[in-house]
Amino acid sequence: MARFGQGFIQALINPSYQQGLFTAAQGPGIALGEAAEKARQQSMMEQLKNMSPLETAEYMITEAKTPDQLNAAKTAKNVALSQAGKQSIDVIQSQLLAETDPARMKQLEDAMVQTAQQTGNVASQYRGSASKLLLARDEAAWKATKNKNEQRALVEGNTVDFVVAQMLARGDTEIPKTIKTPNGEVPIPETLTDEIQKQFVASKEAADAFQAAIEGASLPEAYENYINSNPQLLEDNAALNAQIKIIEETNGKGSSLRRTNAINALKSLVDTEQAETRANKKSAAALEMDVNALVESIITSENRTYFWEGAAMQDFLSGGGSEEEIQAFREQAVQTLKENPNATIQEVIDGGMTGMRRKIPAQKRQKARDENAQSQANRIAAIEQSVKEANPDLSDAQVTAVVQRKLSEMQMEAFGRQAQTSRAFQ
User: Fold this and answer.
1) Taking a C-beta distance cutoff of 8 angstroms, is the pair 383, 403 a contact?
2) First-last CA distance in the chain
3) What is the 3-state secondary structure (H, E, C) of the chain?
4) How far apart are CA 220 and CA 208, in angstroms?
5) Which of 107, 52, 67, 114 shows the shortest CA–CA distance to 89?
6) pLDDT tens digits, residue range 61-89?
7) Cβ–Cβ under 8 Å, residues 89 and 115
8) Which residues lie across from 353 on neighbouring strands?
9) Distance from C-alpha of 146 to C-alpha of 149, rounded to nearest angstrom
10) Residue 199: what pLDDT?
């Protein structure tokens, strides 16, 4: 052992031996270090596979060794944060599109704005989302209602014309219950009975008067008035001038072919003009339906209302305005639609209210409002007296609560009556 120890010491003194010994000792250390690094990288890869982009970016920030690596990791984090925010906003936005409660819609809008602010997205594009969506829905319903009313007015007007023509052709005086169509017999709405009767009587009288005119009597008064009220017809139409001259020359001389042809030519012209008048009447009827629907939708809406100069239209239409004011508003709203068929709901309201103010002087409007307020006060006083007489033990506060409840019930009953007589959004 001593000889081995002495030899070993001498070998350590030999430089070449020392280098070999160092190299031999270094090999296992390097191998162990490489294995540890490889294991660390594999662990890192496993973690990264299960991380979201944002978690990956945050992890890379903690692992950054140089300023460039740190800046790159922070940039990646901002991008990932923005993308994650946008995904969250998309989910909230889908909930907003499916929501109908305005209060809840506003909450979702606020959530989108807040998420955008916290994740580096543009928050301004989400502000007002709820009100824009509500407005878009209202306008879509308004457009659908107008289209439906236009078709309804056209169908009703054509039905009246068709029934009257059939009655005249058959010599009937009784309004039929149904009309025949390519799809079978269709009942005639009772709401059209009065209009059919009115137009039938007018058409029958005109037909009888024309027959009498052919036999030598004067032209029907309506046609005389039409010619006298439209002198440009005679100025622009030489043929019509000639027909009028023939009619005047043959008045009181009995029937003749010349007179018959002249009267029929005049009747054809005037009937064409009257057909255009009826077409305009159908269009006006559709516009009245539109305004009635708009008024009813504003009155009965629980979640949505429109304003004019800061005041709620619901209050104006459900008691705040006098009957004269509301009627004037309806007329002016119809006129607004005549001038601009594509007017939005707010534009119709603005046009109706502005026209109403022009039509009804301010002093008269104030008087009407004062009378309405006094009438309301008298009604409340009468209800209070009735409640006190029926319930003498109630306190003043309890009486007031009962009165308010009764007023609310009366208002809802009024809304119900209006809903039965006017056409709302359907």
Assistant:
1) yes
2) 112
3) CHHHHHHHHHHHHCHHHHHHHHHHHHHHHHHHHHHHHHHHHHHHHHHHHCCCHHHHHHHHHHHCCCHHHHHHHHHHHHHHHHHHHHHHHHHHHHHHHHCCCHHHHHHHHHHHHHHHHHHCCCHHHHCCHHHHHHHHHHHHHHHHHHHHHHHHHHHHHHHHHHHHHHHHHHCCCCCCCEEEECCEEEECCHHHHHHHHHHHHHHHHHHHHHHHHHCCCCCCHHHHHHHHHCHHHHHHCHHHHHHHHHHHHHCCCCCCHHHHHHHHHHHHHHHHHHHHHHHHHHHHHHHHHHHHHHHHHHHHCCCCCCEECCEEHHHHHHHHCCHHHHHHHHHHHHHHHHHCCCCCHHHHHHHHHHHHHHHCCHHHHHHHHHHHHHHHHHHHHHHHHHHHHHCCCCCHHHHHHHHHHHHHHHHHHHHHHHHHHCCCCC
4) 9
5) 114
6) 777 778 877 778 778 777 877 888 888 88
7) yes
8) none
9) 5
10) 85
pLDDT in tens, 88-106: 889 998 999 988 888 888 8
Contact at 8 Å (CB) between 391 and 369?
no
CA angle centred on 89, ends 88 and 93, rounded to 5°: 125
pTM above 0.85, yes or no: no
Residue 259 in tokens: 């007179």
Q: Which of 153, 176, 150, 152 is nearest to 164 (CA)?
A: 176
* Tokens 């594509």, residue located: 342
Q: Cβ distance 110 to 126 under 8 Å? A: no
Hey, which residues does 307 pair with through a beta bridge? 312
